[in-house]
Amino acid sequence: MDIKGFQFSAVEAAIKKPGRKDLALIFSEVPATACAVFTTNAVKAAPVLLSAEHISSGTAQALVVNSGNANACTGQHGMLVARDTAHLVAEKLGISDEAVQVCSTGVIGVQMPMERLRIAIPGLIEGLSSGTLDDVAEAIMTTDTFPKMEARSAQVGGVSYTVAGIAKGAGMIMPNMATMLSFIITDAVVEPAVLEKSFRRAVDTSFNAITVDGDTSTNDTCLIMANGVAENPVISTGSAAAQEFELLLHDVLLSLAKQIVKDGEGATKFVEIRLTGAKTDGDAKRAALAIANSSLVKTAFFGQDANWGRIFAAVGYSGAEVDQSRLSLRFDDVFLARNGVFAGDDAEARGTEVLRKKEFAVTVDLGLGSGCATVYTSDLTHEYVSINADYRS
């Protein structure tokens, strides 16, 4: 990956327990244009509150992140820890406190061991000369089974630029900022308005279109920094370059979002839920999410049971406008029901074969209009229960 003007570092701070790197830093060598979206949960972690305050300037230069402790529901002490962390990093880097974003992920309600951070931060800064983005991706993992990364490149006026991103997330995944952390960096020169508009639209069709278990966390953060070190002709509003940039950004975010679903805690299936024929796009999204979050539907996916009635039931309670006499349902290209009526035992047998695959699509047509939406989800397994039954231990 060739991305200019960024440095990376990760160290072990033993925040939850020793034996792995759990504190990481992304540093832009120059101030970067930046924006972010955060959890919609009314209960927000201290680093979320601080980062939202800092990024209101539209710029950032460093991002420090830890795993193992969410620093959520920790009161005024938690805010002091977040501010002290930003200050210590800023002081070592010679930048302002406001230029530092702070993110955390892990157990809620446990006070952050600030002394361990204080000891680890000098080594974190020193490691910038040799670290990689891979190191950061690994350091932010919690119940993840693999690091999540993606990078794409393009050109403007013959000058190349790169968009790269990492993410973490496996459980507590729900749209409206899926429960996860994701950090996107680019060396492109991008107008702030283009960056923010493209970023928010890309988030909406990627991270806001995935769900593993319907839970929205206290710490969700997705942030982008553009430092302009590639020195390409500026990507400006209304240009072809802006359209290409947004498409590239969307591809990076969607890849990361899909990796999160595939790594859903205990997941054995990756399922694309496609809703078509709704009265509105909003109705389509509501119906798709109802299917994707239904425990009965998700356990049927795990059991490879072509129980299409559970899917129709989820659509019916979703809040979307529904006429059951117009409903149709497919697993990949196999119709299980048309006009609200079962397609027969042979169709069910072929549908069961589809569910044996690790990846498949479920398409529901409401037959009422042109509204559509796509949501990505996983199955619900015994392993999911096991992981979350003793997550804090």
Can you tell me about this structure?
The protein is of the alpha+beta class. The protein folds into 2 domains: 6-262, L-amino peptidase D-ALA esterase/amidase (4-Layer Sandwich); 270-389, Ubiquitin-like (UB roll). The chain is 34% helix and 28% strand. The chain contains 11 helices and 15 strands. The strands form 2 sheets. Strands 1, 2, 3, 4, 5, 6, 7 and 9 form an 8-stranded mixed sheet that branches. The model has no long low-confidence stretch (mean pLDDT 92).
Question: In CATH's first tier, which class of the largest domain applies?
Answer: Alpha Beta
How confident is the prediction overall: mean pLDDT? Answer: 92
What portion of residues belong to β-strands? 25-35%
Name of the CATH architecture of the largest domain: 4-Layer Sandwich
Fraction in helix: 25-40%
Tally of strands: 15
| CA-atom Rg in angstroms | 22 Å
Name the structural class.
Answer: alpha+beta
Largest sheet: 8 strands, mixed
Q: What is the N-to-C succession of helices and strands?
A: EEHEHEHHEEEHEEHEHHHEEEHEEH
Helix and strand layout, with pairings?
Layout: E1 6-11, E2 23-38, H1 46-54, E3 59-69, H2 75-93, E4 100-107, H3 114-126, H4 133-139, E5 148-156, E6 159-168, E7 181-186, H5 192-204, E8 210-211, E9 221-226, H6 240-262, E10 270-278, H7 281-293, H8 295-303, H9 308-317, E11 328-331, E12 334-338, E13 341-342, H10 345-355, E14 359-365, E15 371-378, H11 382-389
Parallel strand pairs: 3-4, 7-9, 8-15, 10-14
Antiparallel strand pairs: 1-2, 2-3, 2-9, 5-6, 6-7, 10-15, 11-12, 11-14, 12-13
